[in-house]
Amino acid sequence: MIAKQDTVSRSRSCGILGAIGNTPLVKMERLFASVPMEFYAKLEFFNPGGSAKDRPATAMIEAALKTGKLHKGDTVVESSSGNMGIGLAQACRYYGLEFICVVDPHAQKQNLAIIRAHGGKIMMVEEAEDGDFLSARLSAVNRLVKQNRSYYWPNQYANLNNPRSHYKGTIREIDREMNGELDVLFVATSSTGTARGCRDFLREKNRHTKIVAVDAEGSILFGGKRGERKIPGLGAGVVSDLARGQQFDTVERVTDTDCVRGCRKIARLEAVLVGGSSGGIVEAVDRRRSELKGKTCAAIFHDSGQRYLDTVFNDEWVKSELGVKNPETL
Ligand SMILES: Cc1ncc(COP(=O)(O)O)c(C=O)c1O
Predict the structure, then answer these.
(1) Which residues line ligand 1 (CB under 6 A)?
(2) Measured from the CA of 193, which atom of ligand 1 is nearest?
(3) Which ligand 1 atom sits closest to the C-alpha of 162?
(4) Fewer CB atoms inside 10 A, N or C side of the chain?
(5) Distance from CA of residue 126 to its chain's centroid?
(6) CATH of 54-147, one of 2.60.120.260, 2.40.30.60, 3.40.50.1100, 3.10.129.10
(7) Phi then psi for 171, rounded to 5 degrees?
(8) Is the overall model pTM greater than 0.90, yes or no?
(9) Where are the domains positioned within the chain?
């Protein structure tokens, strides 16, 4: 369980980091128009770095500065498929820290350009390890930290400030707006920081809310079978310390093509561009529609579709990478 706090805390961070949080919760009226239910989306791309990861990134850096693990001028190293890298690059630049981001070839080029623009350095891992890039990225981080004893690794996959940031922010904001009256919350998973923080808050407040963890086909979280995944951000090829033993009311698995279909549906019906994991959530909700009649549901949309213009929203990519013959029909 994470420490208690009873009021909605506005971030105490300074400057641009003070603008993290209090993102809009938007009622989507058209996505599931044929189902008598309410569906709200927490639009995390309104955070200044463009994703939910601004919250744990800033929380981890501020905690390390506060406890003396980090000092101005030090170097931070982290493995990230993009969003955490951007959040950390932003926080490191703000606090005068160097940043090295370990990424793999699946990272979106645009994300890497943003990290560089924030002064971060990119280290590209070219080969997968045991069939998975996350293992390879983590090995590279370990090597760097061993070789350079002054480097600091926040380790989003074990750091409790990751779920704590969602406990203190994301879910508290949703709960306040919904007056504690939420039946089902859909959350995409990778480190499980978001889902853990939300679950801990809701259980502590004795809310009746059921949590559906939306994971990727091919992710080995929750006993899943390892397989190829092309959509960044969703799922994991390693069960991290943070994810080990975590349980949610339901786990729903989605394919890469489900993610694309969901993203295009939201764009078409709601005029909102969201990233791949949010598209996956929409398909997961759709699958469970018969159980959701009369319910009030919410979902956390981690990032924006603007970062997926060359993939999810590109018909050629969808054809060649996902083998979909007629992407325009999705
Ligand atoms: C786009 C996107 N969706 C979902 C997630 C999953 O969040 P968490 O790591 O908190 O489980 C991530 C994490 O990187 C992400 O980038």
Answers:
(1) 53, 83-84, 188-195, 233-234, 275, 277, 302-303
(2) 10
(3) 10
(4) N
(5) 23
(6) 3.40.50.1100
(7) -75, -30
(8) yes
(9) 15-46+163-324, 54-147
